[in-house]
Amino acid sequence: MELLIEKQRDNPLLKRKEVYFRVKYEDTKVTPSRQEVREKLSGLLNATQDRLVIRWMKPEFGKMEAEGYALIYETPEDMKAVEEDYILKRNFSEESEEGGE
Fold it and tell me: What is the pTM of this model?
């Protein structure tokens, strides 16, 4: 899986960094999971996963690529104040299931 950062900008009003990215997955032939992309993004952008959310990720028809939009907040509390519950559930439900309750 190859991950390319296409565009990023700071949004000081919402205390976050907005990142547009592209994922190429010709080697796996399967669209990578949101958790796999979050791990890779956190490594590339030096951000902890507890303050990183992927808003959307769309596979492109006929290609082994997907484009996406991620947000990196300054603190987890800033993220919880701005993001809607369903976005947080999509990004963090897998972690809570794996780690037990």
Answer: 0.85
